[in-house]
Structure formats: C-alpha cells, structure tokens
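Kindly review this protein for my students:
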Amino acid sequence: AVNNGGNLHVSSGAVAESAIVNAGGNLIVSNGGVDNNAVVNEGGKLMIYGGGIANSTTVTSNGNIQVYEGAVLNNATVHFSGSLSLHSGGTVNSTTIESAVILAVSNGATANFTEINSSGLLHAYSGGNVSSSIVNYFGSMVVFSGAAADNTTVSSGGFMSVSSGGTANNT
C-alpha cells in the first residue's frame, strides 16, 4: 500500500498491479508506465501523466484521480464523493461515475463511454468532447457552449442539458 507521504512512480515499461493508495499517498503513472486494478481510498491520489495508462481503477469516497495531457484512464469507477479531474489532452474511456461525483471535461479533453448514475454529473466545457455516454436515472449531463456530445443515451429519469452553442449529435 502507498500510505501518507509515500509516492509510487510507475514509468518506462513498468507495470503496477493492484496498488492501494491511502490518505496522503500518491500513485504517479507517467510515460510508458501502466497501472492495473488500483484502489484509491479517501485522501489518496492517482496522477496519470503523458504516455501513462491506468486500467480498472476504483476510487472510493474522497479519493482523487488527475488525468493530464496524453494520459489515458480506462474502466474506472468513481464512487460517492470521489473525484476525477480530466485536463486538456487527457482521455477517459468506460468510466462509471456515482453519486456526488462530477466529471468535468475541459478544452481538448475526451470522455468516451461514460456511465452517469444517480446524482452523478458530467460537465462538458468548450472544446471538450464526449462520446457514447449513458445518463441513467437521476444522472445529469450538461453540454456547455463550444462542447460536443455524440451518441448519448438518456435513460428514464436521466437529465441532459445543451446550452446555446453546444452540440448534441445522435442523442
């Protein structure tokens, strides 16, 4: 486990399996590094930089993931009050967001195959790209001016809002 004040850095062909990141610990994945099946607990942080890949990550309450330019996050589940920050040039694929989680897709960032569950929220800002999302009961998606959402499915009780200047295709 990576505990308070600890840092685990995965890069250049290295692979980390089933890491547990606790309060005050940092898991850093950078160019050529791969992280599989990590659990990020309350107060822990996973940071993925350019060329880094994280697969099948679980974020518990108040854990945090940061996805930077050129980084990829696949198959993450972010539980109640966890956080996922997607920076310009970052990509997240097949993410599930639960209650009290906000996924902000900023300029130049991409979110594919996101599932938004009850009280989860996806915000797509200008220059952000969102594709193949599912908005479930009491989940919400907001597409602001300059953002694009393609192939969205809004289930019964789900909510999607497209602001003036935003684009929704094949919804």
